[in-house]
Amino acid sequence: MSVSKVSWRSAEPAALLDLAAYQRLIGLDGFAPLPGVPDCELCGAAEAVAVRDTVRVSKAVTARLATRCCRCCGLLFQSPRFEPAFYAAYYAQTYRHLVGWGAAPDPAYVADQIARGAALRRYLAPWLPRAGRLLDIGCGAGGMMVDFRDHGWAVRGIEPDRAAAAHAATALRLDVIACDAEVAELPPAAFDLIVIAGSLEHVAAPTPVLARCHDATAPGGLLLLEAHGLGQAACLGAIGHNHRRLFTGTTFRLLMLRHGWDPLWVTDRPICGPTRPGSVFALGRKAVAAAPGVLDATIARGLRDTLQETRARLDRLGIG
Ligand SMILES: [Zn+2]
């Protein structure tokens, strides 16, 4: 794959690409889309309805790639999907071109990360030990860990973009492992707080990521999730092509229950500051194990996003 051929801004205005043309644009046309609609990653149901037919690639480019809503739990997810190697190649090499990084991440992006991390540490202080051990999954340039480190925390990051991980290690002197979160080798019960800020919407599959996070969390440890996709879509008027799934406060609660965390709260307050409007956050505490049947029972009691609610939310937010 030659990422130098990727030309994000050269397409004709308002170009609508079919899936094959989109794959050529991002330099990943060697991957065939997987057949059919995947089962819901959250509840396992096999019935999902397309609620939007296209995604936004850039200001000038839209692509035919549907977003579906699970009829059982309400999870929004991109379909069709590709094999994991597609996403591995995309995030190792291509994604940085999309977000405008060159050889190193944009200094303004790094500064924003540092500010968001400081705001997050202050907000979470009532739930945190004075100094603990932090793991940031999908840490980018690592900026969100800086304020934690400066307040005595031991910090480690996981980041698939090799250049961003290298920048975090050299420029910010952070311990960052360059790999995909699905295959990261993490020490057991080693972290008091795991942060996944906007990254769970990008990974190839959340289930192995959250299983590894559960094993790596110390007894009583915490998981902080941020969903950025719907907030970004509301700002841009369309769902972004990078978000493989989109979470709400409800689907975050269900996700935590399924994977062995007790949800403590969800909020749409800007707890990381004002630069990512519309983000939703959830904090959970590690349970001993995921209770069998708890997800189905919770959905049956009514904690779910219905298709009708989801359609109304997308319309209300102006997401076309
Ligand atoms: Zn579902």
How does this structure look, described?
The chain is an alpha/beta fold. It has a domain at 107-300: Vaccinia Virus protein VP39 (Rossmann fold), CATH 3.40.50. The protein has helices at residues 19-25, 84-98, 107-124, 146-150, 162-171, 206-216, 229-236, 249-258, 294-300, 307-316, and strands at 15-17, 48-58, 61-70, 76-79, 133-137, 154-159, 176-178, 191-197, 217-227, 245-246, 261-267, 280-286. Helix 8 packs antiparallel against helix 9 (294-300). The two termini are 32 Å apart. The structure holds zinc ion. Zinc ion (ZN) binds next to loops. Zinc ion is lined by residues 40, 42-43, 45, 70, 72-73, 75.
CATH class of the domain at 107-300: Alpha Beta
Which secondary-structure class do the elements indicate? alpha/beta
Mean pLDDT across all amino acids? 93
Query: Can you say what the CATH homologous superfamily of the domain at 107-300 is?
Result: Vaccinia Virus protein VP39
Q: What is the CA-based Rg, rounded?
A: 19 Å
State which percent range the strand residues make up: 15-25%
Shape field: globular
Q: Which fold name is given in CATH as the topology of the domain at 107-300?
A: Rossmann fold
Q: Low-confidence parts, pLDDT < 50 over ≥5 residues?
A: 1-6
Strand order of the largest sheet: 7-6-5-8-9-12-11
Q: Give me the CATH architecture of the domain at 107-300, please.
A: 3-Layer(aba) Sandwich
Tell me the distance between the termini: 32 Å
Proportion in helices:
25-40%
SSE order: EHEEEHHEHEHEEHEHEHEEHH
Main sheet properties: 7 strands, mixed
Helix tally? Answer: 10
Distinct bound molecules: zinc ion
Number of E strands: 12
